[in-house]
From TrEMBL:
Pfam families: RRM_1. This is RRM domain-containing protein. It comes from Acaromyces ingoldii. PANTHER family: U1 SMALL NUCLEAR RIBONUCLEOPROTEIN A/U2 SMALL NUCLEAR RIBONUCLEOPROTEIN B (PTHR10501). The keyword Lipoprotein does not apply.
Length: 254
């Protein structure tokens, strides 16, 4: 017994650990296909991603589900990604309450297995029951009905303002956003990797992390405080990597 080698201690998984994680507070202005690709690229660094589920309807807007290959990868992703500002909004993460279809299929021999079919049927039935009493669902239906009535000229005495006459609310240009310890890097050349950006920003004190969103030509760079990020922003804005026609445009994250 005394010669038996001790196994290294590992962090115990929470009681509610699940292979699927729930993400909310996502930027609702980003197209769903772009958002899903960005989420997959970001979370795949923690382990194999089986599926990314996100919808544009009112009830699910700004939310997503990421299904991992194992619970350990999901737990690590929650621990390290929570608060990360994807497209300017800090993500909020938690374990999902149920397993995703992709996880159940993997554990039970595919989508056509009896267990997978029963899981999907139960999930859809639960979804129907939930939607009947869901406030967002009722609001969505009310908006659709109001839009149809407005199109037919039924206004209940209220004046209908044509869409082209509605005054748009101007948004603040990125260049004038208030200081933030996280920088948003635009126009990142395709050939530039995370290590390239890390080396570039490493010359400024206080660098914590660099995250690149593949295929979107953007990245996020985090410093210890806004004063440090401001120095890096001023020093590297319009920086040009050799051989690239694009210059980096650096703003504070929203």
């Amino acid at each position: 017994m005394g010669d038996e080698e001790e196994k290294p201690a590992t962090d115990a998984l929470p009681a509610d650990a699940n292979e699927t994680i729930y993400v909310k507070n996502l930027n609702e202005g980003v197209k769903i296909d772009v958002l899903k690709k960005s989420l997959e690229a970001l979370f795949s660094t923690y382990g194999p991603v089986l599926s990314v589920t996100a919808h544009s309807n009112l009830r699910m807007r700004g939310q997503a589900f990421i299904a991992f290959d194992n619970k350990e990868a999901a737990a690590k992703a929650i621990k390290e990604v929570v608060g990360f500002p994807l497209y300017g909004k800090p993500m909020q993460l938690a374990f999902a309450k149920t397993k995703s279809d992709a996880v159940v299929a993997k554990l039970n021999g595919g989508e056509e297995s009896e267990a997978s079919k029963k899981h999907k049927e139960a999930r859809l039935e639960q979804k129907k029951r939930t939607r009947r009493g869901n406030e967002h669902r009722r609001r969505e239906l009310a908006e659709k009905i109001a839009a149809k009535r407005a199109a037919a000229g039924e206004t209940d005495g209220a004046a209908v303002v044509p869409a082209h006459k509605k005054q748009a609310i101007p948004s603040m240009p990125d260049e004038y956003l208030p200081p933030n310890k996280i920088l948003f890097i635009h126009n990142v050349p395709e050939a530039v990797m995370r290590d390239d950006l890390d080396g570039l920003f490493r010359q400024y004190p206080g660098l914590i992390d660099v995250r690149v969103i593949p295929g979107r030509n953007v990245a996020f760079v985090e410093f210890t405080d806004s004063a440090s990020s401001a120095v890096a922003r001023d020093g590297l804005n319009n920086y040009n990597f050799g051989g690239s026609t694009e210059k980096l445009r650096i703003t504070f994250a929203k």
